């Protein structure tokens, strides 16, 4: 089984009278428990591709299948439901809710997706434990270090037990050793669960944590 | 919902302005309501105090107590009507009341009556009066003798009654001949003859519709205009206009309350674009997010209502007796419903704005 299939995906942004082709016809398949690194320079279309894969953005053309679900024709409401149940995101800007503690930032997923409270609490505590954040559960994001915030974001992405986790430059704000530490953690978490992951980065040193690397330049994918 | 509550608790500063505005609007609504109720109750108490099914005026009176005269002949004709239970006279004289030790002359409505009711005991002895408790605010005490009108007719206050005023004049309830002498000595130009009243209070036997009772009475006498209690209340000069005016002002204030909440959450939604995009990106629906807004607006409204009610209670303590405001529990309940409903409606207005937020902005791509 494949976790993600992009079939002839194309994304064009309108730009004034002009158009920007962010992703040219892209074909990509990610295996069930595969970690794929997507590498490319800034502006090459990585975030766009990741957004399409996670149902955040609709492609201009082409088909997107996640697990056994073809989300190409989904409307906004269906996409919201799909994101709630099937994917986890780690955003480049980390994007934690500033007035919620580390633990609450995980539980907010359960609240948004309507997961039952008891299991969600147990899951949040377990994730925080795995991510080495047990002593930080009651801290607000402002009280956490950059690496800790990134780990909270990873925990949040795993809260809904997704089959596919998407990371947008998870180490870009971290120095190399901290970056490698976080990548190691990502690998452990993803492999430990047997889920698939796409990790976008423009740092080729991080690709060693992936099973396979695909590069993208000016919207063109190349193996 | 939890995140909405946590934001309220951890970022209370955000809600201070809207909470303050709602508190003041609640104060305004409760005060306006208190004035409306005070004006209404103190203008119509003398009518409502009699447990009347109908009030019989002379047909030339144009529904006014002061222009109306009915006599023993009319009484006999009313008593003969099938369906009539009890009939009792009622007459009102609006006169100044000098209270011992008080420099200000209070306003009084001396009422001559015959029938006891829920609000009124049986008429006292000649020269005695049951006074409306509002007269206490003007310095009156039981056992005192007050002097009524320019002729200074003495009346001894022997007990309090509640909610018996007429046209904001304090009720002084006396037996019929005492009223007649108060009226005739003070207003020799408009004397009341023996057996005369301004209206008759009619209580039905309970086996007949009020409309039917009224029709029978007027056709039996041929010279009366009989009103139901409610119609008599709204025939009091100015009552209808007063009610319409206050209701309009209160309505506008409730609308403004909704508008304030709508505006506040519309601005807050713009401020929260990033947060909402994130919550949508991780699977939150617009409905869930709007529910959070409604929870917040409801919580702010309830808090503001409590504060506003406390302020109103404080204000009620320092109001001078010349302001006839009366704070009723029913009004407080209606205001609570109105304020919370306006807040919920105001919060719901942000639905469209929230729906339009693109979750893709959370990741930094898309629109
Ligand atoms: N919402 C948008 N509107 C217009 N152009 C966009 C938008 N988002 C991205 N782009 C353009 O699409 C291209 C790819 O952007 P992006 O996917 O963010 O690349 P990367 O993540 O690799 O830096 C860039 O040229 C960028 O300017
Ligand atoms: Mg990017």
Keywords:
heterodimer; A: 223 residues; six-stranded mixed β-sheet; four-stranded antiparallel β-sheet; 6 helices; 34% helix; 29% strand; B: 367 residues; alpha+beta; six-stranded mixed beta barrel; binds adenosine-5'-diphosphate
Number of helices of chain A: 6
Strand order of the largest sheet of chain B: 2-3-7-4-6-5
- Count of alpha and pi helical runs of chain B: 11
The neighbouring-strand order within the major sheet of chain A is 6-7-8-3-9-10
Average of the residue pLDDT scores of chain A: 92
Structural class of chain B: alpha+beta
Shape of chain B: elongated
Low-confidence stretches of chain B: none
Bound molecules: adenosine-5'-diphosphate, magnesium ion
Largest interface: A-B, 31 and 25 residues
Estimated radius of gyration of chain B: 28 Å
Secondary structure: number of strands of chain B: 9
Beta-strand content estimate of chain B: 15-25%
Strand-pairing-aware structural class of chain A: alpha/beta
First-last Cα distance of chain B: 27 Å
The helix content of chain A is 25-40%
Structure characterization notes:
The complex is a heterodimer of chains A (223) and B (367). Chain A has 223 residues and is an alpha/beta fold. Chain A has helices at residues 46-53, 76-86, 102-113, 117-130, 146-158, 176-193, and strands at 2-15, 18-31, 35-39, 61-66, 69-70, 87-90, 164-168, 196-201, 212-217, 220-222. Helix content of chain A is 34%, strand content 29%. In chain A, the strands form two sheets. In chain A, strands 6-7-8-3-9-10 form a six-stranded mixed beta sheet, with helices on both faces. In chain A, α3 (102-113) packs parallel to α5 (146-158) and α5 packs parallel to α6. Chain A is globular. In chain A, 50% of the residues are buried. The mean pLDDT of chain A is 92. In chain B, α2 (13-48) packs antiparallel against α10 (329-348). Chain B starts with a helix and ends in a 12-residue tail after the last helix. Chain B has a six-stranded mixed barrel. Chain B contains eleven helices and nine strands. Chain B folds into two domains: 2-43 and 239-366, no CATH class; 60-222, no CATH class. Chain B is 50% helix and 17% strand. The model of chain B has no long low-confidence stretch (mean pLDDT 94). In chain B, β5 (145-148) and β6 form a beta hairpin. The A-B interface holds A 22, 47-48, 50-51, 56-57, 77, 80-81, 83-85, 89, 91-93, 95, 97, 99-100, 104, 107-109, 111-113, 156, 160, 168 and B 1-3, 6-7, 10-11, 274-275, 278-285, 288, 359-360, 362-366. Bound molecules: adenosine-5'-diphosphate and magnesium ion. Adenosine-5'-diphosphate sits between chains A (13, 15, 20, 22, 40, 42-48) and B (365-367).
């Amino acid at each position: 089984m494949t976790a993600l299939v992009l079939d002839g995906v194309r994304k064009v942004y309108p730009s004034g009278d002009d158009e920007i082709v962010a992703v040219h016809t892209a074909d990509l398949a990610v295996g069930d428990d595969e970690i794929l690194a997507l590498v490319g320079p800034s502006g090459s279309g990585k975030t766009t591709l990741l957004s399409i894969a996670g149902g955040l953005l609709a492609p201009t053309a082409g088909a997107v299948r996640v697990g056994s679900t073809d989300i190409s024709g989904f409307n906004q409401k269906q996409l919201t439901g799909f994101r709630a149940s099937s994917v986890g995101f780690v955003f480049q800007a980390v994007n934690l809710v500033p007035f919620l503690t580390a633990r609450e930032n995980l539980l907010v997923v359960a609240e948004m997706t309507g997961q039952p409270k008891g299991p969600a609490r147990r899951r949040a505590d377990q994730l925080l434990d795995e991510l080495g954040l047990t002593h930080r559960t009651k801290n607000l994001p402002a009280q956490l270090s950059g690496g800790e915030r990134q780990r909270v974001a990873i925990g949040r992405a795993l809260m809904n037990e997704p089959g596919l986790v998407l990371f947008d430059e998870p180490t870009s704000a971290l120095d190399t050793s901290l970056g490698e530490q976080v990548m190691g953690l990502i690998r452990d978490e993803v492999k430990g669960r047997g889920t698939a992951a796409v990790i976008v980065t423009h740092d080729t040193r991080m690709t060693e944590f992936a099973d396979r690397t695909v590069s993208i330049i000016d919207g063109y994918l190349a193996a | 919902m939890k995140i909405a509550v946590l934001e309220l608790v951890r970022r209370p500063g955000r809600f201070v302005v809207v909470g303050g505005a709602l508190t003041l609007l609640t104060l305004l609504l409760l005060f306006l309501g208190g004035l409306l109720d005070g004006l209404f109750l103190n203008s119509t108490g003398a009518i409502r105090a009699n447990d009347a099914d109908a009030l019989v005026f002379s047909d030339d009176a144009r529904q006014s107590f002061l222009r109306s005269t009915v006599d023993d002949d009319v009484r006999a004709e009313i008593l003969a009507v099938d369906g009539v239970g009890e009939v009792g006279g009622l007459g009102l004289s609006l006169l100044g009341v000098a209270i011992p030790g008080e420099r200000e002359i209070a306003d009084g409505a001396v009422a001559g009556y015959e029938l006891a009711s829920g609000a009124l005991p049986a008429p006292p002895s000649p020269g005695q009066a049951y006074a409306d408790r509002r007269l206490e605010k003007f310095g009156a005490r039981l056992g005192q003798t007050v002097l009524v009108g320019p002729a200074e007719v003495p009346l001894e206050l022997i007990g309090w009654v509640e909610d018996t005023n007429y046209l904001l004049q304090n009720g002084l309830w006396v037996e019929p001949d005492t009223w007649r002498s108060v009226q005739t000595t003070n207003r020799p130009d408009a004397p009341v003859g023996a057996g005369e009243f301004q209206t008759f209070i009619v209580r039905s036997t309970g086996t007949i519709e009020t409309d039917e009772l009224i029709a029978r009475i007027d056709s039996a006498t041929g010279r009366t205009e009989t009103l139901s209690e409610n119609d008599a209340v709204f025939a009091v000069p100015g009552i209808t206009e007063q009610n319409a005016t206050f209701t309009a002002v209160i309505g506008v204030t409730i609308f403004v309350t909704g508008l304030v909440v709508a505006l506040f959450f519309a601005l807050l939604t713009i401020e929260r674009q990033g947060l909402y995009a994130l919550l949508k990106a991780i699977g939150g629906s617009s409905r869930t997010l709007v529910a959070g807004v409604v929870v917040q607006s409801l919580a702010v409204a309830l808090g503001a209502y409590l504060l506003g009610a406390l302020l109103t209670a404080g204000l009620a303590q320092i109001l001078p007796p010349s302001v006839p405001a009366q704070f009723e529990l029913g009004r407080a309940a209606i205001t609570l419903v109105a304020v919370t409903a306006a807040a919920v409606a105001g919060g719901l207005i942000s639905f469209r704005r929230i729906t339009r937020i693109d979750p893709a902005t959370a990741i930094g791509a898309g629109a």
